[in-house]
Design goal:
The protein is an alpha+beta fold and 162 residues long. The protein has five helices and seven strands. InterPro entries: HATPase_C_sf, Sig_transdc_His_kinase_HWE.
């Protein structure tokens, strides 16, 4: 577990270094964290969303959250069975001049899901790693759905053009 989290941090930091620490594109971040499940043309993971660049202070913890969601899915959820699937989708909306980023991790086709009696370290990491985020996890019997919403800072490129 600890080694996996260190690897997740390393992958996030590599993306940031490659981008001169200016941010990480979410799709690239997701693909790097979920690479083990995206092999061999597998249709088990479906990633959907437009390009969104996360600032460095959000890219690193988001990498950890994605890693933790995938680890839990592989142990207990949709990725633990041959028929399970995960839909990861994201959208960036402008609401009242604010950039609202919403990410949904939705599992299906795996074993029945039950809400854990206690929140472990991984659950706490998912719920509390992203500063200012609202995280909602729904443990439906058909599969876990985790929704993350947070406000992103103003896009610096937009500021430069003004």
């Amino acid at each position: 577990m600890f080694d996996g989290r260190l690897d997740a941090l390393a992958r996030s930091h590599k993306l940031l270094v490659d981008a001169r620490w200016e941010g990480a594109e979410f799709s690239t971040l997701a693909r790097s964290q979920l690479a083990a499940y995206l092999t061999d043309g597998s249709q088990r993971l479906d990633l959907q969303g437009d390009p969104v660049v996360l600032p460095p202070d959000l890219a690193t913890p988001f990498g950890l959250v994605l890693h933790e969601l995938a680890t839990n899915a592989a142990k207990y959820g949709a990725l633990s069975s041959g028929t399970g699937r995960v839909l990861l989708r994201w959208v960036l909306d402008e609401e009242n001049g604010r950039r609202q980023f919403r990410v949904t991790w939705q599992e299906s086709g795996g074993p029945p899901v039950m809400e854990p009696e206690k929140t472990g370290f991984g659950g706490s990491l998912i719920a509390r790693s992203l500063p200012g985020a609202t995280v909602h996890r729904e443990f439906a019997s058909a599969g876990l759905t985790c929704t993350i919403e947070l406000e992103l800072p103003e896009d610096r490129d937009d500021d430069a053009e003004s």
